């Protein structure tokens, strides 16, 4: 009997573990599943990758008899609305996607015209809810597959009516790319950008300046952003000053910052400076001298070995390749013994 009770306890414990594990898996799956907002849904904050711009932004141009309303359920407690046919609003933005946030109610238009870069679409702000119980901050329109760039949006109150014969339209907020921005409609945007150099050959440690020219001459914002494709090789500062860091190639890009995203590039090739040559003369403790006509990097290697050996590190000998004494030999190596060296001299010169 005691054994039977023990078995039942084990079985019960196993069942509890199974239920617990199942619950964890379901919970985990629920956490991983992220659903994007859908049309008609109340969206009180922009989703990841988006930013929200209020209807009061001065880059939105309203035409007609629009009024600003104050309501606690709206984004920033404000919205803009009109009842007049053919009233419109327009704005420009940089990015690749857009959402419109508005109040949905049964006195709102169910056929509102929206044009993006001349392509016509439509959306509705009508819902069956009574006006006293409206749906605030609703997602009423979205376009997610625009090309990255500047887009012009025009929204017009058409003559179609809402559910109760009225034809009000509303704008609460605009959601765009988190990296985008609204563009001043009166601004003259950049149509192009060029650099005074399209390629540079530099040596490590050298600096050079690039100059960007933004067209047209009357562009409102001529600010550019400078970037390097590989800062470990070449860096560039906010003024276009280029610094060669190490040997290799990298691309410097200048990008307009008015939302037009025009770019120009310069390819930078970096090489190490000419090595230079030197005559290394090593005097031995017996007074004899050994001379080696070598590059400065080879001289530096010898000095590094000598200093390390003085500190008790490294081998006791250092070798130099020499020209074989006769054609019978293919290679000649001369070895210097550390404790037989008295001193050394380095005479640098420029190779022709």
TrEMBL record:
SUPFAM superfamilies: Invasin/intimin cell-adhesion fragments. Residues 189-266 form the BIG2 domain. It comes from the Bacteria. Gene3D superfamilies: 2.60.40.1080, Galactose-binding domain-like. InterPro entries: Big_2, Invasin/intimin_cell_adhesion. This is Uncharacterized conserved protein YjdB, contains Ig-like domain.
């Amino acid at each position: 009997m005691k054994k039977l009770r023990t078995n039942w306890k084990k079985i019960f414990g196993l069942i509890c573990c199974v239920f617990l594990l199942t619950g964890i898996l379901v919970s985990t799956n629920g956490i991983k599943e992220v659903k994007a907002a859908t049309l008609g849904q109340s969206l009180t904050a922009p989703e990841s990758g988006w930013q929200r711009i209020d209807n009061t932004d001065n880059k939105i141009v309203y035409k007609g008899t629009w009024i600003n309303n104050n309501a606690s359920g709206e984004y920033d407690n404000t919205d803009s609305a009109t009842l007049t046919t053919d009233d419109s609003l327009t704005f420009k933005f940089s990015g690749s996607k857009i959402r419109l946030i508005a109040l949905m109610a049964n006195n709102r238009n169910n056929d509102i015209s929206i044009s993006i870069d001349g392509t016509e679409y439509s959306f509705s702000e009508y819902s069956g809810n009574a006006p006293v119980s409206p749906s605030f901050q609703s997602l009423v329109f979205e376009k997610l597959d625009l090309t990255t760039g500047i887009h012009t949006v025009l929204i017009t109150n058409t003559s179609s009516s809402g559910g109760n014969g009225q034809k009000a339209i509303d704008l609460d907020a605009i959601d765009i790319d988190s990296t985008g921005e609204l563009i001043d409609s009166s601004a003259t945007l950049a149509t192009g950008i060029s650099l005074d150099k399209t390629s540079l050959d530099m040596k490590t440690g050298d600096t050079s300046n690039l100059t960007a020219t933004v067209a047209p001459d009357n562009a409102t914002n001529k600010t550019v952003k400078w970037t390097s494709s590989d800062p470990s090789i070449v860096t560039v500062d906010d003024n276009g000053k280029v610094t060669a860091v190490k040997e290799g190639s990298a691309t410097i890009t200048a990008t307009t910052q008015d939302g037009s995203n025009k770019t120009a590039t310069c390819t930078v090739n970096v090489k190490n400076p000419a090595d230079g040559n030197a005559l290394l003369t090593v005097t031995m403790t017996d007074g004899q001298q050994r001379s080696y006509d070598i590059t400065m990097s080879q001289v530096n290697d010898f000095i590094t070995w000598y200093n390390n050996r003085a500190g008790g590190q490294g081998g006791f000998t250092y070798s130099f390749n020499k020209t074989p004494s006769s054609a019978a030999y293919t290679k000649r190596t001369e070895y210097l013994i550390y404790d037989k060296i008295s001193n050394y001299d380095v005479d640098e010169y420029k190779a022709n």
